[in-house]
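Sat 14:20. Reprocessing the chain from the morning session after the first attempt stalled halfway. Input below, unchanged.
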Amino acid sequence: MSIIKDLEKDIKTIVEKSGYQVENLILQPSGRRDLGQFQLNDAMNLARVYKKSPRVIAEDIVKELEKDNRFTNLNIAGPGFINITLTDEYLGSLLTKIYEDKSLNIDKKEKKTVVLDYGGANVAKALHVGHLRSANIGEALKRLARTLGYEVIGDAHLGDYGRPLGLVILEIKKRYPNLAYFDENYTGDYSDIDLPITNQDLEEIYPYASTKSKEDEKYLEEAREITFKVQNHERGYYDLWKRVVEISKADIKQVYDMLNVDFDLWLGESDAAEYIEELTKIYEEKNVLKESEGALIVEVKEEEDTSPMPPLLFKRSNGTISYETTDLATILQRKKEINPDEIWYCVDARQELHFDQVFRAARKVKLVDDKVKLEFIGFGTMNGTDGKPFKTRDGGVMSLKDLISLVEEETKKRINPDTVEEEKRESVAKTVAIATLKYADLLPFRGTDYIFDPEKFSDLDGKTGPYLLYSTIRIKSLLEKGTHIKIGEITKFKTETEKDIALTILRLPIILNKALDSKSLNDITEYIYKLTSLYNKFYAENKILTEEDPKLQKSWLTLSKIVYDINIMLLNILAIKVPEKM
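Finished this time. Tokens:
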């Protein structure tokens, strides 16, 4: 339990001593710092229960609070708002405890096992800007949930089992018809075959094949037939498909590594294929599969629906498995292999209908227990300065590699040549570029679209990743210069700015809980900016290393270390690395 929760618990006991029972007492930050640091608003609710004036109830509570030497400047505003200020001694002691044990500033949750599906990259296609948000939001949510005590298993959930693979393999066949994979008489080991295909080739092949399939119905039909062969593990086609997946997966991993994104599982849709037969049997036994124009569907519309809800496509008329069915099979797989309490899907908001269908179809046959939570975590789009989805200059979809390079060019301009050696500048620029992208991406509420301006978000001033990195590096430098001073206690305050920093530190557990509840990182990104800005104000107002009062100097350096540790923790949750210099 966090220090702020302990304080609320103590005040709740004091309120009960004054003669009133309150269930969920919450200390609110005061909007009027001249009146107090915190505000207690329970008198209004208690007035309805006890049929008394809220002002009278507030007076009773304040009388009891005045007996506790931890509080000062106790007063009542309006009809019964109780303002509370912590004494400097008590506030300093709370910060000292946090310095000694960082876990005292976090509220651990009840343990749960969560599978977090936040990859979704399609094999044989380049990762593009549309994959950025799922990677950034998903990775940060995983790290946040782990910080708060959940066991979280991140799954890349690669798209590797649908028509795109059929198109890619068909085009490979057209270009290299003599490959042994297409020879029905070949009986050798396919692993010995030298495949003349690179990931760069695959990134060119897929868009070519996709365009051609829209213009040539015969070509599209051939691709469908090959997809069917792959899904039924036909020798040659299936083996080539596995090689293509491995080539593509290596490149996908490389890009995710650049983004500091790490998955526990690198499974794809195909890994749930072994559960398709069992899944089909479950739906057949529940008698919910219906035939429609040669395809199999599951009706998921409910009586209370006010908007159209199309049926879920379970199997196409040509016998191939749909994306919806592989998602259902994956739920079954996760139930059997992991048995999670919750499954989260961090995906584009435009996929909400798809997941609504999948979740309803899963519940219809009790694919998982009712207590297992299936949650859709949708996000908006990243747009360019023109307000439209981020594109290349020629209007094409920009790859993630190109986007990172573009931002890196901007961050290189901000690297100080006097502090960063030339041979390290490129590496530092890459680190700062990723921080730029991530902080900008996580700054708005996840459900909203936002405009990404590389120049604006690369700036060292303002609400940006580089600003936070630079400030954190400066705090570290200060602490290194002050290693000769023994720190560990906060016994003295000089300005209101220091107290503002202290009170902001105490709000950390509330911010972390709120971020997890909303499944959005914007509260954390706003919080770290506020804390850092307050600290920078304090830093500018005081000469910490030359302060003559030893108690004050020790307190200031201890406060600096707490802020530094919080920044490092939060930047790590956001999957942002901090360079040594910049």
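The first helix runs from residue 3 to 17.
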